[in-house]
Specification:
There is one protein chain. The chain is mainly α. It is 41% helix and 3% strand. It has a two-stranded antiparallel sheet with strand order 1-3. The longest helix has 24 residues.
Length: 563
């Protein structure tokens, strides 16, 4: 079946909850769609419902911001990395470069009011997540009607767990400090919202229930998430994912999601009746990370795979456990695309103009033998050093041949267009995007173990780093911080690290003298940033009466950029 038929079918089935591209014109039965019973009896329709979940994650176009970053799940993932202060444009550090080519501006310039409850960036996250959840709920309702669809039901449950896990970690208001500087606002978390996550929307809820649906406490949310994952673990135990179905979560992915969930719970000391915290949760995080590694059959990316300019981070390889695999049907146009924004070589897109990069301090801290340095433009802008790992010619590297600007130091050439195609977006945008790699499981295992067994945690980190830097020696102190640093480097640009920084009360540190962070985004926080406690949109309060008086505090002007 062609993907565009699937997209069109699911758009009608799900009541046009989101806008989709690649739709063909065709007539559907009066009434707007099939019934759940008709769908469960039709292999064609069942496949459409199943495929809808990963398809929507990579092609969900909205108009909350009227911006080209509204291309689905990874559009939000990139916003998380900017919110964390880990990814930012470096183009402005050379003449002709412009920081504003980076279109995730609300999450870069967090000292403004852009993240207040009344502003569109709040809708971008909240409404997108619930649109995705709506789709999974519809799938769960349909697959629950037929015992022969147990694997499909498990897949839908895993998708839903991933989405709620993201939201729970993003909206949970953890203690954070304002700068206290003159002219900055205070940041105080009211007692009535402490430990709250988001409303749980289950399949089959009525309009009346949705209009009075409160935020649930952390323990209740994780009991729900782990319930979905426990059920998924059973249902997909025998599921053999076809090679062309990397968008579907299998047993290894379910274990990986459990590892992520328990890792988050390890950051809390509260005692709950039905979910573990602290050391007990960290032990489970390590256990399920190891199960994910073993079940996946995946291997850590080699240097050649990591740095390949034709396939590196644009095509599934032996380390990827879960991925969004795009086709010509799911690429909306030249600019509504991950590659157009994140690939320095996509000359048709924003990436070549903004040049997403890494901080000077992170680059300098990397071990000299670490091959992950090689796809970063070095401080001397040595084209010869980068040439084996990029598709750009030296002239393009210098801003010629219709490239937007010369590449600045510390720009990261990690994500490549499909096949290295630099100018034809209809080819270059058709890339794969990782959702989960086995390397994350190795680092979760190392960090979780380090919280209760430092010696073993240190050995696990050393074993992993042998795949990245042959001369690496871990510093003798603060092992957990070192593991997180290596995770920051490994997963730069993949939308993962903010949740670790938030859980561990780490700081944004881009406000130092000589920073390469853009003006307006030069912050140094005292522990976790207030804006990591994301705010619910005002529209949600207006539609759901139970949210009134229970929003996270606005974070605007709690810190000022040093420039």
């Amino acid at each position: 079946m062609k993907m565009n038929h699937i997209i069109k079918f699911t758009a009608v089935l799900f009541g046009s909850a989101v806008l989709l591209s690649g739709c063909v014109e065709e007539t559907f039965p009066e009434g707007g769609g099939a019934t759940g019973g008709q769908i469960s009896d039709s292999p064609f329709a069942t496949e459409g419902v199943l495929t809808a979940m990963p398809t929507l994650l990579m092609s969900n176009a909205t108009d909350y911001l009227d911006e080209h970053i509204e291309f689905g799940y990874m559009g939000m993932g990139a916003a998380l990395d900017r919110l964390a202060g880990e990814v930012f444009p470096v183009a402005q550090n050379l003449p002709g470069g412009n920081q504003y080519y980076d279109r995730w501006q609300p999450w870069l310039y967090t000292g403004t009011s852009a993240l207040d409850a009344s502003k569109p960036p709040q809708q971008f996250f909240y409404n997108n997540y619930y649109a995705f959840i709506y789709t999974t709920n519809q799938a769960i309702s349909i697959f629950s009607q037929n015992e022969s669809m147990s694997q499909e039901l498990g897949i839908a449950k895993a998708f839903r767990a991933m989405l709620y896990l993201d939201m729970a970690r993003l909206y949970d208001p953890l203690p954070a400090k304002a700068s206290g500087a003159e002219g900055c606002n205070a940041y105080v978390i009211p007692d009535n919202i402490k430990g709250l996550t988001v409303p749980i929307v289950r399949e089959g809820m009525t309009t009346e229930e949705l209009e009075n649906n409160p935020r649930v406490p952390r323990d209740e949310m994780f009991e729900f998430i782990l319930g979905d994952l426990n059920e998924a673990e059973t249902l997909v135990a025998e599921y053999k994912r076809p090679a062309d179905k990397m968008g579907m979560p299998n047993l290894a992915v379910v274990y990986g999601l459990k590892a992520r969930a328990y890792l988050w719970l390890g950051g809390f000391t509260e005692s709950y009746a039905n979910v573990p915290t602290g050391e007990a949760a960290y032990r489970l995080a390590a256990e399920f990370a190891r199960k994910a590694i073993d079940a996946s059959g995946c291997s850590i990316m080699t240097e050649a795979q990591y740095l390949d300019p034709k396939t590196g981070f644009c095509k599934v390889n032996s380390s990827w456990m879960w991925a969004l695999c795009q086709s010509t049907d799911t690429v909306i146009n030249n600019l509504y695309s991950w590659t157009a924004h994140m690939a320095l070589e996509a000359i048709w897109g924003y990436g070549n103009g903004a040049q997403p990069g890494i901080s000077i301090t992170s680059y300098e801290r990397m071990d000299a033998s670490d091959f992950r340095r090689k796809h970063i433009v070095n401080p001397d802008r040595d084209y010869a050093a980068l040439a084996p790992y990029t598709n750009l010619t030296e002239e393009e590297f210098e801003g010629g041949e219709d490239a937007i600007a010369p590449l600045a130091p510390y720009a990261v050439c990690k994500f490549h267009p499909n096949g290295g195609e630099k100018r034809n977006y209809s080819v270059g945008n058709v890339t794969d995007i990782p959702l989960m790699r086995v390397e994350e499981m190795y680092l979760i295992e190392a960090e979780a173990t380090a919280h209760y067994d430092e010696g073993t945690g240190r050995s696990l980190l050393a074993s992993f780093m042998a795949h990245r830097a042959p001369n690496y020696l871990a510093p003798p102190t603060d092992l957990v911080e070192e593991i997180i640093f290596q995770k920051r480097i490994e997963f730069w640009g993949e939308g993962i690290i903010l949740f670790d920084l938030k859980r561990l009360d780490m700081s944004v540190q881009n406000g130092y003298e000589g920073t390469n962070s853009p003006s307006g985004a030069q912050f140094t926080t005292d522990g976790r940033a207030p804006w990591w406690n994301y705010v619910l949109p005002l529209s949600a309060e207006q539609q759901n009466l139970a949210l009134k008086g229970f929003n996270n505090p606005n974070t605007s002007n709690t810190y000022k950029s040093v420039q």
